[in-house]
Every structure is written in structure tokens, then in C-alpha cells.
Request: fold
Amino acid sequence: MSTKYVYAFSEGDATMKNLLGGKGANLAEMTKIGLKVPTGFTVTTESCNLYQDNNCQYPEGLWAQLKDAMLETEKLTGKGFGDAENPLLMSVRSGARVSMPGMMDTILNLGLNQETVEGLAVKSGDRRFALDCYRRLIQMYGDVVLDVSMKNFEHALEAKKTQKGVELDTDLDEAALDELVNEFLGIVKEKTGNDFPADPDTQLDMAIKSVFDSWNNKRARIYRKLNNIPHDIGTAVNVQVMVFGNIGHDSGTGVAFTRNPATGEKEYYGEYLMDAQGEDVVAGIRTPKPVTEMAQEMPSQYEELKKVYGILENHYKDIQDFEFTIEEGTLYLLQTRNGKRTAQAAVKAAVDMMKEGYITKEEAIMRVDPNQLDQLLHPVFDPSAEKQVIAKGLNASPGAATGKVVFDSDKAVEMVENGEAVILVRTETSPEDIHGMFVSEGILTARGGMTSHAAVVARGMGKSCVAGCDAIHVDEKECKFTVGDITVKEGDWLSIDGSIGEVILGQVPTKEAAIGADFKELMSWADEIRTLHVKTNAEVPRDVQVAKDFGAEGIGLARTEHMFFGDDRLPWIQRMVLATDETERKAALDKLLPMQRHDFEEVFTIMDKLPVIIRLLDPPLHEFLPKEDEDIQALSQTLGISAEEIKKTAESLAEFNPMLGFRGCRLGIIYPEINAMQARAIFEAGMNVQAKGINPIIQIEVPLVGKIDEFILIRKIIDGVAQEMGIKDKLPYQVGTMIEVPRAALTADEIAREADFLSFGTNDLTQMTSGFSRDDAVKFLGAYVDKNIYSKNPFETIDQEGVGLLMKICVDKARQVKPDIEIGICGEHGGEPESVKFCHRIGLDDVSCSPFRVPVARLAAAHAVIEGKSK
Amino acid sequence: MSTKYVYAFSEGDATMKNLLGGKGANLAEMTKIGLKVPTGFTVTTESCNLYQDNNCQYPEGLWAQLKDAMLETEKLTGKGFGDAENPLLMSVRSGARVSMPGMMDTILNLGLNQETVEGLAVKSGDRRFALDCYRRLIQMYGDVVLDVSMKNFEHALEAKKTQKGVELDTDLDEAALDELVNEFLGIVKEKTGNDFPADPDTQLDMAIKSVFDSWNNKRARIYRKLNNIPHDIGTAVNVQVMVFGNIGHDSGTGVAFTRNPATGEKEYYGEYLMDAQGEDVVAGIRTPKPVTEMAQEMPSQYEELKKVYGILENHYKDIQDFEFTIEEGTLYLLQTRNGKRTAQAAVKAAVDMMKEGYITKEEAIMRVDPNQLDQLLHPVFDPSAEKQVIAKGLNASPGAATGKVVFDSDKAVEMVENGEAVILVRTETSPEDIHGMFVSEGILTARGGMTSHAAVVARGMGKSCVAGCDAIHVDEKECKFTVGDITVKEGDWLSIDGSIGEVILGQVPTKEAAIGADFKELMSWADEIRTLHVKTNAEVPRDVQVAKDFGAEGIGLARTEHMFFGDDRLPWIQRMVLATDETERKAALDKLLPMQRHDFEEVFTIMDKLPVIIRLLDPPLHEFLPKEDEDIQALSQTLGISAEEIKKTAESLAEFNPMLGFRGCRLGIIYPEINAMQARAIFEAGMNVQAKGINPIIQIEVPLVGKIDEFILIRKIIDGVAQEMGIKDKLPYQVGTMIEVPRAALTADEIAREADFLSFGTNDLTQMTSGFSRDDAVKFLGAYVDKNIYSKNPFETIDQEGVGLLMKICVDKARQVKPDIEIGICGEHGGEPESVKFCHRIGLDDVSCSPFRVPVARLAAAHAVIEGKSK
Reply:
């Protein structure tokens, strides 16, 4: 028996997403649970893959199966595909395993031609409607299948409206549409040299192939890259009987969510348009009405719709995003899928559904993508700030955003590459705008509703979005928009508040987000489950406090050099760098000691009873010296050292490859007095806060160790200071090391013998293991990700097969020698969910990340445990 | 029973070097085989280590054992230590496991005091002699044990000679010595506040402790560092009955080698001084006579000495360097050890001894240190050059050296650090000059013989040395020397030929060394034994030919970028770098193609039938652009591109860490046309030479691969060119990769699946694995080696525990997947003996090094096999 490539909706179910795609599997599932779904069938993703592999030829047997499925559809509907008396019309839609909204092609009204259009006219009793369907088919098919630019059809349509003196498409009468159909057919003939194909089988065949082809179009590829969707899973194709929402005043179409996707509230959320096709709602061309208004306009369908909300959510136990069409009073479901939602909605719905008994705590945790949390944690506009609100639109995706206005996506990318923040303003967005939306701080559109392209995509990306802001008039050609008598031009500052839909002139100051009770509850569940400790990389008291409030269980990395950059300190560290002998160096260090001590006291006080890892001075010394002549002159005056001397020192310290130069523990080995000062400052701070009843947990970290002998030498300096101060027993402390040099990871057994703890510095470890510096790799890393050499940027997500392998070797070797040695990570990867999960799997004890990433890491750590159980 | 710390010479043998030190073990061995050795005993190295560990206290029981040994010595000699009638005098000498000539302390004539000196006077019948011994004891003991500067004694001695109107020490009469002894005793009293210790036991005790202490003096530490001797093996102490070569005209002392240590000739080689102590010969204060002259002066002792030559060489089966003293006609042996020798002597003696049946081929091979071969292979003065020979001295250590004259070792180091080559000129050298000798090209001394300090050390270091050149008068204070009416000042150019003893004014051109028959024979034995293939890193035809003549079995690394630096090529590679699009870039590459092809033809022709690994373009592109304004202007004119444009490109290509930047295979991934051109040039060259009957063995190497996907992409480019050219089957070729990025080594299993061969680039691998760039590490690597963090510079000798571990992981992973994959090394380590041996042990197939290192690698590879068998 040959492979089955075609599944009727009645043959599949929701578990078959890989084969039938998300849309197909759910159409089958809805059919199975008795919801009213127009008859149809799905061509499998496997068919798509075989088609791609086979030089764009169907696999053997597919066409025959398609023909059989069409026969079955004709039997079920009692209509004929190409039957001039009683024509069957079909839609063809893409449907990948993962939703890629708007990225691939759709063709409606297949089956129409010069004969069948008249049959449809008779059957529907509305020849104008039939002609409108036909011209839509020619237009879509022409654009998608025949590659005739959409502009041609749009120009003809505009011309026709002008000629007839009407404003809306719907105002064109039957005669006008008759003419328009002929003009469209002429355009096809002119541009392609061939007649528009009248044969319904040819139409179907070509439409399916076009959907297959659209899997590899540019915007689909970009979308997959941005969303980490593999390129080789293919799309299914859903072939379905047409139902019409544009067949009169007892027809309509809508999109709904079982809960509010912006807030998570349980409510009848959705929008509809009377007498319209589905695309009209999604594309944002007309601004639709809230579904609640159906109570007046179509009370019985509204009651049915409310039942659908319940059935879907009860069945799927998650927020459903579904599409419906009402054809002459009958409500059909055309699609359902898990609804994209804001972080806030994800959290609220997860917590509520757990309490409603739909899901377990673990399921609730898994419902929130750790990457999304950023949205909840980042600043909002300061409510006390003065704001010049110039317009209000729909609060389509929450968050505060400020940037320079830009009207074109390419230009947006260009400005962001030049280091600017932008707000993308469009009449409406389309899939071609994806790259511009991705780089923008926020998106403002003049048209389109809560489920418009702009709104859906912005929520998915966690971008602020104000949609459907009719008050503004966007002139994309002139690069400006107007609101009343205010004109905003490209480059002007604008702020938008996606949480309340405000559009504000200029820049608005922001403040920290308040963390809601739902969020706290969810995080407490995550904390119950996770085994990884989550710490923070911070040293400035304000950041330390924020991190603690976000749940940091200590400091995983306090970078002492960050403490040297204050105006009161920099001259002294510069004096130290410029010292020509140990005496001068010690004198400068003596000045720095009380400042460092004070910093440490603050940090210890905030992190009372929590461990604090303090890294000794790390960067190359030349980083502290000024580069510009002007600054050198100023420093020369401050320190009374000649500018020549300063330049000479800077030159002597200059390095070919600073990353691989004189830094880290190497500084302490050549100038032990630096580390001795730091140790003294730490211990004195510890003693001082102890006297105030604080319990400091001190861990001193030696950076850039490659060989155990380096560690031993530095540890001797630290222990020497401790001994001199007689703090033993009074003030316990540990000495450990960063693992950031590959050699250290390879010899972790030797290092673990001497070190009390290890902490991966995966930024440097990645740079050295892979042989590219982060600063320089920008020249080629983009191309590397494009060519799929690395599937993700290894500086964002740990390269598990390379750097990760080295980490595993390190953990294994260290634990062989000292089974309970504490091992953590403090590179930026420590706050990236995939990397956090990897750290859990290889058995690390803790991850440390920037303060705002702490909740992300906490949630990811819980995900790691749950994912581990399900394996 | 307590540990035995003291061994009589009659209790030990030559196998006990670790415990008794080299000198002690050999004194015991000579005693055992019946040679006449003054009675004595050895305090073990273990005692020294325990002493060091124990805050400079003897281990328990040592002192009692020393007392017992002294009692036994008194019994054997019939004399008493401190006996005023018949005094026993002892010497105390250091003696480590490895010879460290002159580095540690020696004290003679222990046992003398105001009473015993008179006993010695009576017994010897020479009160002047007895007083001279006594003043020598006070002087040595004062300097070494009591830390009274030697200058004090020397000033007193000089003053005494002036006062008495005599020139030589030996001209001072008994009365003068009586006075001098009193003055010396006064100096000790004045400088230390105490009387010179009269008690012989105290003298012995303190002398032994001083020798222990001298293990850690500065010059001993430096010597051990230079010679890779561990710091923790300690020295033994030999306590021996004094015999006197300075007791009249039937007494004398000498140093001899059983074969000529400069040439390896079997002859009665050595020097002696009548009426002198041993130190007088070694220190080079008087210039001694060849031992052959003893035939006249002491015929019977000469006959006895000739027998000793035979006995020693027959017993030890190696060149012996021995010391003897004749006391009133009786020949005593004071020391024997394996003689240090030049490379030439090592080779000749090894080959001769094998033929004489003393040793096997394998032993002969092991007799030559691969590091020494450099001496044989490097240039000699061009014999046809004009030379102004201004003096002749002893040909103490062969080789041609040219440099600027310097008279002080500190100054020598300073000049060399400033990039100058120097010749160190001294009246005589002492252990304090070690650091100056180490950095000099050659050493010239006015005094001292073939076994003087300068001569012995220079041979050990492989430095050219002309010693005992009496014609020159060195004025170290004024920094000049004179020969007749010629004055040579600091900074003047001088050349010396250590092979024939010539001192030549100015610089002399050099030429290649001729390789002798002995050398060829020894190398042929090495080739029979070794299993590693030895290739060369070369691409310029002249170098390729030299390497082949030195026995290279192919090219392990041809760096294509080296071929781009010719005047005819550089503008075109620069044009390529400055190209703004692919068309421009291809046009420039088209110009380069025939030049590359021509280079490859030459290389293939020389390396007919031998494998040639060609590495694709590796360095960052900015390396090809000029840096100076002047050069930019010139290039601007040549290429017709504005200077601004050139600067802009250079800036855009500038990198923070070029080593970790846009280079290696990354270039080919972004600009595939570069590698395509190179592949085409290689294949065209291959076809062209094939047509001439040459058999090219082509291996193309992809640089800087970190991830297998990179390799696959570049391999596709190469295979694409091959396919396009239709060379398949006609011109076989392999494609492999460098292993220089840690990530590649870690994932070698994946890489081996696709690559035909692997070659370690250990320079970069060391830099990335250890996290320091070679250029920048100079700032701290010296201190690292001093502090023993790295025992050797990891850029010279593979860091076996770190980088080597990664190499092992790589080899294991690669061979798991492809057991017979060819794996080599082409970093500079490939010509360093320890590293070569390591490569053998981890199972590499070949090593590749610079042409002059090829014989070194061949010999080291044979050593590796032999050492492996003996384990």
C-alpha cells in the first residue's frame, strides 16, 4: 500500500500536528468533538517535504488521493467541483506544525470560472456576490500562483471605483464587477501570456503547489529564523469547502480568544465584521466590532458562539484563538489554535486555569515562556510624568516604548543598526514588515484591530503596540503623520503605551514595573520545583536591591572593576596603573581600599545571609587609562604626571589581543599588592557589617585561571591577608575561581582540589573555545547563523555541542575530585532559558544573571526540572 | 632504625645518583672499581631536602652519623680531625643529581686552626704551605659561611703583595702569610663580631649547612631554570680528605676528557697545572698546559693517567670528564662525570663508540641531544670572506658568532632586550655571568683553558666560545679591549669562530654548514627506528629544497599567504581586499591565480611523490593593507583608489582581537571566491606538473575550523572547483583541516567524519586553550616561568597537561570514527624535541617543522621510540 498523503478532517485529531500541521490537526479535532467545521481534508507535511526534495514534484500517488478526497467532498456536500449548475468552491490554506500567521499563501474560491460563476450566481441568488468571489479568485490566484503583481489588480480596482464614482469595494455594482472580472482576466492574459486557467483541477493543483512553494519564501524563512522554527519540517495544506461571511446581512466573520490575550481575563473576547470574509478581519482593512455586540446584531449566533468558547477551552484547556464564519445564519469554525498572549496574560491565565482545576501547577509553569517575562519586568512610563497624549488607539500589546519615528521597515533596521531606538508607524502592517517590527521598540498603526497583523505579531514579539489609532493620518511617502494640527516627522521622538493605547509626543521617563500577585504566585510554584539556585550579577547597591526583590538568592558575580569607575575612584585606579614602582602602586591602592570596603559593606548588608561572590580585578589595566588627548591632558593635571608619561604607559600597556592579554589573575601574580588590597577591603567590610549584626557570606573569586598554580599563588595572597588580620574562624570565607579559559575546564580536577567553588564565565569561555571574539565576530556571525553553521548566536545561547561539551568535561572532572563542589555560571547565558536548562541538565548548582533576568532564570530552572521528568 | 643519611664512598655506586648526587655516586663507583680516590663520604640529597623543609635544621640523627663517618675517616687515615700533631683536613663539596658546575659552594682545608696549622707545618715540612692552606680556609669560609665579602680578603691580599713588592700570590713568603693570616682573622672578627671558629666540628657543621643553603642561591636557581633542572631535588654534600696539588714540584692538578669534547676525537685530552689546587684550573686564573706535556714533566704519572682514561671509558662507556690531583707524586681521582660536549663531538663519539662496540645503535642515538643539533646545522663563516683576524685563542666551543661587543653581563641582557646581538668579552667568566652568556651570540675570554668556566658553560649552551686569548687585554672598567694597537670598544662589531679560535674585527658573512658523514650515519640509524614522519613548514622553493636535503618527507604546512607578499603580488591581494563587490574581488583574484599556480608548480616539483599540505588563506585581511600614511599614498597611486577609501576599508577591517577575528575559513565562508581561486591554482599546478612526469601528492587544508559545518562549506567550494575542472580520478587530492580552535579538538569525532586528515596548529591552539596571545604574553610569561607556574614556555614546548590533554582528546575522538585518519602537527612545537616525543606518545602520524629543525625532529622521533621501549 502506498503512503497516505491526504487525510479527511474526520480521519485526524489534535495529536497529529507533525503530520497534519497545527491548523489541519485542529480542524480534525474540532470535527471529532462535534463542532461545525466546513468539510475538507489535509495534505500532509510529509508531502510538502517530499515535494521539496523531489524538485517540486508531487510524490507518487498524491494526486490520485487528492482526486479521491475531492470526490468524497462532492459526495458529502452534494455539489460538483466545476459543476456549472451546483458548483463546489474550495479554499486552500497552509498550516505548519507551528503557527506562522500570514507568512504563507492562501487561495480562496477555487472552482470558479466563466461557467461556474453563473451557477453560483443562480444558487446564491446574488450575481454580484458570485462575481465578487470570482474577481477575488483571479486576484489571489494571479498574485500567488501566477506571480502577477497585486498592484496590477489594485490599480484596476481603484480605476474602476474612480470611474464609477464610488469609495468602497462593496459599492461597486454587478455591472462594474462584470467589467472588472474581464479586466482582471485581461491582466492575467497580458502579464502571463496565457488565459486564466478555467479547469478547477488545474486551479487546485497549482494552488497546492504554491502553498508548498511558499514554505520557502523570504518572509517565511525570516519568521522561522526569528522564532527558532526548523526549516525542514514543511507545511501541510488544508483544502476545505468555502463558506461565505460576505453573502449578506445574516453573514459575517470573526476572530475570537477564549480569554483576553492581553490581560488573561476570562471574558468573551473577539471581533467580528458583518458581511465580510475572514481575511478582512485579520488584515485590519476595516476596524471590526467586539463580539459582545453580536448580542444585539445576531443574538442566536452569539449564544452559539458563547457555547463554542466553553467547548473549546474545556477541551483544549488553554486559551484558544479561533476563527468563525457565519454563512446565512449558520456558524462555522474555520480554525482554532493556542492563542498567542502577552506575558501578563500568560501568567494570569496559567494561574487562573490551575485554580479552575484545568491544569496542574507544573502545567501552569510550563504555560509561561521564560523569555516572555522580560515584558513584565521592564519599566513602564512613570505615571507622575507629564505626558502630551496626542491620540489614543487600541492597547494591542502592553509595554512602554520610546523611540524615533520611522515609517519604513528597511529604514527602521538601518536606524537601529546605527544605534537608534525607533517606533515603527504604519497605516497597517503586513508580513513584509516583520524585520522592521523586530528591531523596533514599539509599533503604532492607524488601522486594524486587536487581532490585526500588527497586534498579533507585536504580542508574540513582546513589543509594545498601539493599533487602530484612527486619529492619526499616516503619509508614508512623505514620511510623516498628522493628528489634528500636529505633524510628526521621521526622526521625531514618540512614545507609546501599549497597555492603555496612548500615543505621546516626545520621550517619557520610565519607572520599574509593579509585579502582580499572579506573577508572584506562579514564581513561588516555580521556586518549589526548581533545584538550580538563581543568583545575580551585580555590584551597584541599586542593582543588588532590584535583583534581591526579583528573587536573587545571592550574588554570583560582583565585578570589582565596576566599582572603580566612579569619579572619586577613577583617578586613584589610574594613579595605580601609572605607578612606576610598588611603593607608588601601594599608595594609590591605600586610597582605593576604603572606597572598596564601603562598597562591599553595602553589598553585604543588602545580601545579608546570602552568598556573595566577589571577583578580583579582571580587565587589562589600559582600560582604565584615557584614550583621547583632551582626557589625557586632564588626567595629567589631576595627577601631576606628564601627558607624555601617561601616553608612554598607555602604549606600553597596549595589546594586540587584549582579551588574551595581561588581565585577570595575571595582574595579581605580577602585582600581588592589588589583590592584597582587595582581600583586605573585603575582610574589613565583612568584619564591619558583622559588628552590626549582618551575616556576610563571602566567596572570593579569582578570574582567568588557566592553570592551578595561578590559583594557588593568588589564594596564598588572600589567605596571607586573612592570617595577618587574624580573621580566621571569626569571618569564614571561600576562595574559588572562574572557569573561562578552556585549559581550566580541561584540568578542572586539579583546580577542584584547591578551589572551594567554580563558576563558568561562558562569555570568555565561548570566545576562547570557539576562537572568535564577540566584538569581532559581528563581521561574520550573522552570516554564520544565516547559513545555519550555528543555529543560534552562541553568545546568546550556549553552544551546547561545543562549549557545553567542555563544560560537561569540567563538571565531571571537578566532581570526581570533590563531589560536592559548588559549580555555577555567571556569563550572560545564565539568564537565557535554553542555557539555564542546559546548566540544570549538566548538574550545575546555580546560575547567575543580570537583575532583570532573575525571574526568567527562576522560571527556566523550573521548566528544566519538569522537562527532565517528562523524559 | 633511623634513616641512613651518610654513605662512605665504599658503600655506594654509580646507580645511586638520586641519593648521593652525581659526584658522590661516581666517587663511590671509582672507589669500587679500584681507582685511587681520597677517602670520604657523602651526605644524601634527601638530607638536603629535609633540611630545607625543616627551617634549615638537620634531620634527626644526621649529626651523629656525620660524627661516626669522621671517626671512621680518622681510623682509615690515621690522622685526627683537630689533632694538633697529625691534623686531618677535609673538603666539603656540593654534588647534585645533575651536574651544576660552579653553581654551588665548596670549602677546602676544613680542620685548620691556630694549633693544627702548626701540626700541618711540621707534618708537611713546609710551614709556608700550611699557612697558605689556612688563609685559603679563612677566605673561603669567610666568604661562603660567614658572608664576609670576598673583596675584603682580596684587598688585604693585594695590599700585602704591594707591601712586599711581589706580583704573584705564590711569591708571598712565610712571614707575609703569617701576617696575612692574622689580618684575615681580624677581618672576620671585624665584620662578624666573632672570632673565626677554631673548632673543626663547628667548621664542618657550618660548611655542610652552607652547601645545603647554596642550593637556593640566585645563580643556582637561574642555572636550573636555563637547564630545566627541577628545584626540588636538592644537592648531596661530599666530605673528603684533602689532597694537595700545591705541595711542591712533584704535585699538580688537572682536568681531563677521555675524548676531545669539542670534536669527539679519541685522544688524551686535558689540562694540568703543576703546584696548584684544582680550583686554579677550573677558574681559569692561570692558563694550564695540555696533559700530553706531562710525558716530559711527570712521565710515570702520565702513564698512570693514560691507564685511567682507558679504565674510565671502558667502565662508563661514555666520554668522561674527570679531575685529578697529584700529591707528592701520587695520582688521586677527585671526580668523574659524563663530559659535556659539542654537538659535533656528541655525534662523532656516539658513532665511533657504536663502531668500537661500546654501545648499541640505540644507545648511540640516545647519546645525542636533539636540541644540540642546531649547532651543527646553522651557518659557519663563509671561508671565502675577507677576515681581519686580530687574535687567536682556544677553540673552546665551535660555531660562528657575530655581534656587538659588551663587557658586562647585565649590559648584555639589556642590549639583547633592545634587539641587538652581542659578543660577551671578559677577562674570565664566573658563574655570575650565566645570564649574560645565555643571551650572547658568543663568548671571548682572555684567560682560562678548554675546561675553564667560559668553555664548559658555552659548550653546554651551544654557544660559540674562544677562550684563553692572551693577546687581548680587557679593561672592563673602561669597556674596551686592546690587541696590539687596535682598540675595540663596547658596541663595536666583532666576530669569533669558536671552531678554530679566531677573533675577527667587524662582521663576517656566513654560509650553510656542511653536514658530516658521522651525522648522516647517525641520522640514518634514527630514521630506521623512528615511526613518526617528519615534514616541513615551507612554501618558498629555497626553503623547501633545504628541508628536503635535511630529510623532510613532505610539506606539512605551506602557508599560501606567504606567497602573496612578493612585490608583484601584494598590490593584487590588496586590490582584492579593497574590492567593494564580488566582481572586483574576482578580477583581482584572477590576476593572483597564475602566480599562485606557478608557486605550487615549483613546490610540487621539488616534493615530487611526497605529500604537500597547502593551507588556504588564513590571516585577517587587514594584514595585507599598509599602515603608514606614506604607504597608503603609494598604494592609492598604484591602484587608483583614494587614500580615504583605503583608510576607510582598513578601519572597517580593524579588529579588537585580530587573532579571534575574521580570518581562516571564515574568509572563505564570506568570500567563497578566494578559496575557489586557490583550489583552482592548486589543481591547475597539479595538472601542469603531472604533464611533466611529476607526481604531486595534494592535501588541501582548511584553517581555523571550529565547527564541522564550516569545513563542509569550504570542502564544497573545493570539490566544486574539482568537479568543474573534471580532474576527478586524474588528480587525486585530499581535503583536511587544521586543529587550532579548542572547539574543533573537542568535536574531532564530527570533524573526522568529513575530513581526510587533521593537523594540529599548536601555536593557536595554545593561545586559545590557555587564553593568552603569544605577542601579549611576553608581559607576564617570563614571570610565569620564573615562578614555575609553567615550567617551560608553552609556546616553545607543548603544555602537555593542558593543551596536550586537549590533543589527546582530539586524537581519541577522531580515531574512534576513522581509525586510520592521518593526524599531524605543524605548529612550531613540531621541531622541539620534548614536544615531538609527546606527539609520538599520543599517536600522531607526523610532525612538521621549519627546515633547520627537520633533523632535530628526526632524532627526537627516534628518541621517542627508544624511550618508549624502555618503559
Observations:
- DSSP finds 34 helices and 31 strands in chain A.
- The radius of gyration of chain A is 32 Å.
- The longest helix of chain A spans residues 582-606.
- The longest strand of chain A covers residues 330-338.
